[in-house]
Amino acid sequence: MSDNNKKFGFKLIKTDGMARRGEISTPHGIVNTPVFMPVGTQGTVKAMYPEQVRQTGADVVLGNTYHLMLRPTAERVARLGGLHKFMNWPHTILTDSGGFQVMSLAQLRKLDEDGVRFQSHIDGSKHHLTPERSIEIQGLLGSDIQMQLDECIKLPSPKEEIQRAMELSLRWAERSRRQFEEMNGPLKGQGLYGIVQGGDQPDLRIRSAEELGKMPFEGYSVGGLAVGEPQEVMLRMLDITTPVMPTGKPRYLMGVGTPDDLLESVKRGIDQFDCVMPTRAGRHGLAYTRYGKVNLKNARHQDDPRSLDEGNDCPATSTYSRAYLHHLVRAGEGLAGMLLTWNNLAYYQQLMLGMREAIEQGRFEDFYAQTKADWAKGDIPAL
Amino acid sequence: MSDNNKKFGFKLIKTDGMARRGEISTPHGIVNTPVFMPVGTQGTVKAMYPEQVRQTGADVVLGNTYHLMLRPTAERVARLGGLHKFMNWPHTILTDSGGFQVMSLAQLRKLDEDGVRFQSHIDGSKHHLTPERSIEIQGLLGSDIQMQLDECIKLPSPKEEIQRAMELSLRWAERSRRQFEEMNGPLKGQGLYGIVQGGDQPDLRIRSAEELGKMPFEGYSVGGLAVGEPQEVMLRMLDITTPVMPTGKPRYLMGVGTPDDLLESVKRGIDQFDCVMPTRAGRHGLAYTRYGKVNLKNARHQDDPRSLDEGNDCPATSTYSRAYLHHLVRAGEGLAGMLLTWNNLAYYQQLMLGMREAIEQGRFEDFYAQTKADWAKGDIPAL
Hints:
alpha/beta; about 40% helix; homodimer; 2 domains; 16 strands; 15 helices
């Protein structure tokens, strides 16, 4: 599955409006963009076998530095041959910097210019995450696409706070880059992305994007969105930010989102996404389909012999009746989460494939309108 | 997968000592005996896709009448086309009578000559399970191999209690049979098994087996064992019971057991087994292998790059490192249960296949000795 390409690359194949069709090459294969990357927090995409994740069409999965540095530890993963081998995923892996989850999960956090000190939520052990250490960890994991350490703050926040965090993130971007070069990331064909911050402040977003654009990153992320603000604020920030981001590099909107978020963001020039939504929703009885979200807990499904969506390629979507899925959800059976996660990841990948084909054929606007119309129809009526 | 055979049958192909190699035919296929039947309590073998269960070599799975009658209810399953279709298992299904789980799970149980009244452990709703109702439910589910209602009591118990329950079970056997014929079970090619009771009392076991043998059942179960007594008591009861059971009918030892129980019981002429052990153990971090039981929670696995058993056909057994499995178990990831259940069911099926081949080739004693020797070696040493 992996190829011998040892140079990280991005090829822009086609644009349609702001929407872009591209290809990222990494040491572990080609990533077709726009791409959705399933989240494999602790070295596993929850409730899925890795081969299944691949079969849904995923070119890349995400690993979380915060979780993996605590358990099983980056050093252990490295001794065992790296994260690809450890989790049986021979394709591309992207890792975050760990910063976001330190701020949301760890205890007794203390952030200063140098980095962030915290205690593990698992065993209370003390850790110090700096830009350098984050890159070191991501290198030990063997990640193909790495992220600079940044400070991501909640919205709303006062502008001076947003500005302080954005400027700190710029200084950390430089330190992250230096460490990445020192570890020979570029020679290994790995990529490091800088992260645009600036909250909901247009001028700060623009300055962040411009400053990062001057640094030699392999790609650029948009961070600090989908952190509590309405969708329209997020989209306005994209409208402002993507035009000042380098066109020849991939653009990754971190932690986003709903199917509608993906459609709207591709329209605004985003190439990469990750989100726990399809996997988490699947474990909570929610299915994503062409016709929107279906809550399998609902009693209206209990006698329904129809599948979620007949004729769909995914067995979880087309083989099992809604009545059976409803039963599994109500009975608390693990197979419910297994089947609904599978369905949801398959749907997300089908949506991305639809977007990629539409952009290639110059009909993204039509695809956008048709997809929205299908969602608006809602789920098929109960029997 | 199903065939057109509408007559329940049992063919004894070969015997080797007391061990028997046979074939049960049901409306949903051939069951090669000795057979292990994975337990699909609530219409799902926990943490497994049905296709996977089949791939491990399972010819038949078990459904629990008590659970299914309460949720989603037998009437609903029947409306949806029966249990095979509901759970996407087109092969043979065996159901128990519900009696055993009423006595272990339900609330406010009251047993009399007519049957047992109880309240659901899920919502407190009131139910009355009689021999007739149990067969009606199993017919609604569309079960290929059905069980009479019996009274199974814990060991040790006073002899008069054991005798009372055994005699009640004989009367219930007759009522169950009458209901089964009335519902045209035989015409549908389904089978009904009588259940030998008698606790740890040789004379009661013999009387129960002899009386049941006079009734026209398609098969005979041995119940009331593996309910707290030492293995040697169970094996002594088998030594006494199987010689007085009809040779031309399959013999099913209910709720058993460990790999060693299976080996010892096949040696004593048992053809069918079911047990939650491989699935439940899998969800608790325990793996069964050629070399015995492996506790993946144990820290000795944390740096071990070796799989559970190299060269094994099951991907769960041969692809993933012990270090990874240990990590998944410690992190509480669902994939741990998915992979270890898969490994365990595959091991159980491999053990049964080994026994079937050995009996065919007249070398069961050798197989028995070799298997015990392998288990005695214990797991491979830690690195």
